[in-house]
Amino acid sequence: MGETRQRDAIDRILDEWAVQRPDLDVSALAVIGRLSRYAALVQARLDAVFAEHGLQSWEFDVLSALRRAGAPYELTPGELDRALLITSGTTTHRVQRLEARGFVTRRRDNDDRRIVRVRLTETGRAAHEATHDAHAANETRILAGLSPDERDALLGGLQALGRVLGDAAEGGA
Amino acid sequence: MGETRQRDAIDRILDEWAVQRPDLDVSALAVIGRLSRYAALVQARLDAVFAEHGLQSWEFDVLSALRRAGAPYELTPGELDRALLITSGTTTHRVQRLEARGFVTRRRDNDDRRIVRVRLTETGRAAHEATHDAHAANETRILAGLSPDERDALLGGLQALGRVLGDAAEGGA
DNA sequence: CAGACATATCTCGACGTCAAGATATTCCGC
DNA sequence: GCGGAATATCTTGACGTCGAGATATGTCTG
Question: Which residues in chain A have Cβ-Cβ distances shorter than 8 Å to B35?
Answer without folding.
Answer: 35, 38-39, 42, 158
